[in-house]
Amino acid sequence: MSSKITIIGAGSVGSTIAYTLSNGDMASEIVIIDINKQKVEGEVMDIAQGTCFRDPISIVAGEYEDAKDSDIVIITSGIARKPGQTRIELTQTNVNILKEITPQIVAAAPNALYIIVSNPVDIMTYVFTKISGLPERQIIGSGTILDTARLRCGLSEHFGVAQKNIHAYVFGEHGDTSFVPWSRAHISCVGIEEYTSILNSIGKEEKEPLDRAAMEEYVHKSGGKIIANKGATFYAVSVAVCKLVSILLAASDSTATVSSMMHGEYGISDVCISTLTMVGPEGVKGKVPVSLTDDEIAKLRKSADSLKAVIAEISL
């Protein structure tokens, strides 16, 4: 596979994505762009020196024009919330950074597929969709793909089953109003309660019923706990983004909980949010119309409304 991937932002997330990509075979060329030239040059040198054990790959510290002919552009630029800073203040700061980046990168790589990772990712995806001038199919927010990974990790630990056998998702914003549509959650083709019964019928120890609220809290609080313990989160999000890269470079489409513009699905419009979405080499094909309960639809609309409230207070 020969693909060119440009990463905007050489912070912990951007550089870890570059490192992860350098250990695989998805990219033959990686360009990293950052306003901090010294930092990006150091990251490139460190990553490149570890590639002697793989097929040749080009990893360079570049400028926006070096993104020409990129197949995928990954935007990770932005700052973390500072003590005392409100969500609105953080959002406006990162929106301003994105507004500065967008015309430069789009001019250099107008045909690339764009993965937006910068937080708050749903709002950043919305802003990029509105200001880039690109077709919506080319714009994919990483959305709740990480939240879904955290959910499956938690379920795997609870049930003692491989994560690949778990089909459960997190919908909504990448944030506190996200939720699990439990009506669509399955393990090895059966529902959660039925799977618990199966385990109890074949196991030696009685398995406690799943505490759904506690599992959703685990998903919501994981990021904050990691930040409290080590200062930042970047391994899991980088793997999740690289998985999304592999989907976009694959020969056929896949489904993933990524953030993209809503056009009336579940009664929601003009906001980017995560539901099950068909994505592949042509970008976003569309939302998969998964049947949800009335309560789940209400939660999704509440999540969308919370994002719209923030959008209404920022300057685009």
- Low-confidence blocks of residues: none
Approximately what portion of the residues adopt beta-strand conformation?
15-25%
Strand order, largest beta sheet = 3-2-1-4-5-6
Helix tally equals 9
The SSE string, one letter per element, is: EHEHEEHEHEHEEEHHHEEEH
Largest sheet entry: 6 strands, parallel
Helix content: 40-55%
The counted number of beta strands is 12
- What does the radius of gyration come to? 20 Å
Instruction: Provide the structure class.
Output: alpha/beta
Query: For the residues shown, what is the average pLDDT?
Result: 93
| First and last CA, distance | 38 Å
- Gross morphology is globular
Which terms would index this structure?
six-stranded parallel sheet, three-stranded antiparallel sheet, alpha/beta, 316 residues, 9 helices
Structure, described:
The two termini are 38 Å apart. This protein is α/β, with parallel strands linked by helices. The strands form 3 sheets. The protein has a 6-stranded parallel sheet with strand order 3-2-1-4-5-6, with helices on both faces. A 3-stranded antiparallel sheet has the order 7-8-9. The chain has helices at 12-22, 37-48, 87-108, 121-132, 145-159, 192-202, 212-230, 235-248, 294-311, and strands spanning 4-8, 29-33, 58-61, 72-75, 113-116, 139-141, 166-167, 186-187, 190-191, 254-263, 269-280, 283-287. Helix 5 packs across helix 7 (212-230). The relative contact order is 0.13. The longest helix has 22 residues, at 87-108.
